[in-house]
Design a protein that fits this description.
The protein has helices spanning 8-17, 162-167, and strands spanning 34-35, 45-46, 52-55, 58-63, 73-77, 85-95, 98-108, 111-119, 129-132, 136-139, 143-147, 153-158, 175-182, 185-190, 193-200, 211-216, 222-233, 237-239, 249-251, 263-266, 269-272, 278-283, 292-303, 308-314, 317-325, 330-334, 348-349, 357-364, 368-373, 376-382, 401-405, 407-418. The protein is mostly beta strands and 423 residues long. A hairpin with a 2-residue loop joins strand 20 and strand 21. The chain starts with 7 loop residues before the first helix and ends in a 5-residue tail after the last strand.
Length: 423
């Protein structure tokens, strides 16, 4: 397997030529996301002007002795309602109690009820899914909770070790929050760590759409800040992983995958333990050949080589996106014009930390193949006049699948979006 050999000199050269996280575009823009706060004013938002303002590019919610909140009050986004979505924002809270309302009901006079993602200064209370004005605490940090049609709430599993999860929260500092809602299923992630997961099938109380709002809690003086608020609709995305089992996937066990590592689902993730050399899974359902986009998050749990080798269709052929190969740092596509990911024009060098989630997005359209890692474009390859193919070792994983090489990896949040037209 010299093609996959650990080439330290190559990795070092790539590291020196392309610093970690280098982007072709050199921008923090996230494709598919719409910013809903411009950093200048509260245009598109509605709340008590005594309590909400914009200072130094952030939304500030503040109560004082002179300007108290006599009841919970909210800053409501008036740009529409949310159904299936991904919300990303950053927050900082130094005192009091706040929250992010999702799929909620506007009761008038800046009052809102419904699902809330808790925002508080102390890490012990973070990760809470709460229903404002309703059922109260729904799911807490570390929990995977299901509520059935009879309103029976059950902790059906764990999303990880509670102390490890809570340690990811930065008290009284800026934190990055991601909330994903798809159907009755919701998750919240803070600083890249999944905090809790809720499936709500209580037909009398569940909400599949509603408003977005930010909370100021009644009580003593408090201050909370929000910035970088952006959303993406998920109505046209297809979930490739249900978070519970390997439905729709098969464990590849032929040819170079015969000595694969263990594959299993744990805490809402697919685990691919180190194989000799490969461990991989292949999608068993239909998959488009062109004009599509795949999103996933991947983690190198242990090992030194690629933790995401994504084989994908390119019209009537295939290619493989390598993330973290050749000693751990190579990103590129194999094969382009019969050249592998370490030697063609897609080759990039990036450093990847152990046990850190990396969002990866692949888009295949008629004109080009594009790849983003952590929201930064790292590959932008025109297809015209180029040949694409995969190594024989990767053929068992076609038409679409993910493999690791001499490495333990993890995957989550795998989705497919079919593109009706060129973006």
């Amino acid at each position: 397997m010299m093609r996959f050999a650990s080439l330290a000199l190559l990795s070092m050269a790539l590291f020196l030529s392309t610093s970690p996280g280098t982007s072709i575009e050199g921008t923090k823009a996230e494709d598919g996301f719409t910013p809903i706060f411009d950093g200048k004013a509260l245009a598109g938002w509605d709340g008590d002007p005594r309590l909400w303002s914009v200072k130094e590019g952030v939304i500030r919610g503040e109560t004082t002795k002179e300007a108290p909140a006599t009841r919970n009050t909210f800053l409501i986004w008036r740009g529409g309602t949310l159904s299936d979505f991904e919300l990303r924002l950053s927050f900082r809270i130094s005192s009091g109690n706040s929250g992010v309302q999702i799929r909620s009901k506007d009761r008038g006079d800046w009052r809102v009820t419904g699902y809330q993602v808790e925002v508080v200064p102390g890490r012990e209370q973070m990760g809470l899914f709460y229903e404002e004005g309703g059922r109260g605490r729904l799911a807490e940090a570390g929990q995977k909770v299901a509520i059935n049609e009879k309103r029976e709430k059950t902790v059906v599993g764990s999303v990880g070790d509670l102390k490890t999860i809570q340690s990811a929260y930065r008290e009284k500092d800026w934190n990055d929050l991601v909330v994903i809602a798809r159907g009755s299923h919701m998750t919240q992630t803070i600083n890249g760590v999944l905090f809790s997961e809720l499936t709500d099938e209580d037909k009398q109380n569940e909400a599949l759409s509603g408003v977005l709002a930010l909370q100021l809690h009644a009580g003593p003086p408090m201050l909370v800040e929000y910035k970088d608020i952006r959303i993406k609709a998920l109505a046209d995305e297809i979930a490739l992983f249900n978070g519970t089992d390997l439905t729709g996937w098969k464990i590849v066990d032929t040819e170079d995958f015969e000595s694969h590592g263990k594959v299993y689902v744990q805490d809402g993730t697919i685990r691919l333990e180190q194989g000799g050399p490969f461990t991989g899974i292949a999608w068993t359902g239909e998959f488009p050949k062109n004009n599509y986009e795949v999103n996933l998050e991947a983690m190198r749990v242990d090992g030194y080589d690629f933790f995401c080798g994504m084989t994908f269709p390119v019209a009537d052929s295939w290619a493989t996106l390598i993330v973290g190969g050749w000693g751990g740092m190579v990103v590129g596509i194999s094969n382009v014009d019969d050249m592998n990911a370490s030697e063609n024009q897609t080759t990039r060098g990036m450093s990847f930390e152990l046990k850190r989630w990396y969002p990866i997005r692949l888009r295949v359209t008629t004109p080009k193949i594009e790849v983003w890692i952590e929201g930064k474009k790292v590959i932008d390859l025109a297809r015209e006049g180029r040949r694409f193919n995969v190594w024989p070792e990767q053929q068992p994983i076609r038409p679409f699948g993910v493999a690791t090489w001499m490495t333990t990896g993890a995957l989550r949040n795998l989705t497919l979006r079919k593109l009706d037209k060129e973006p």
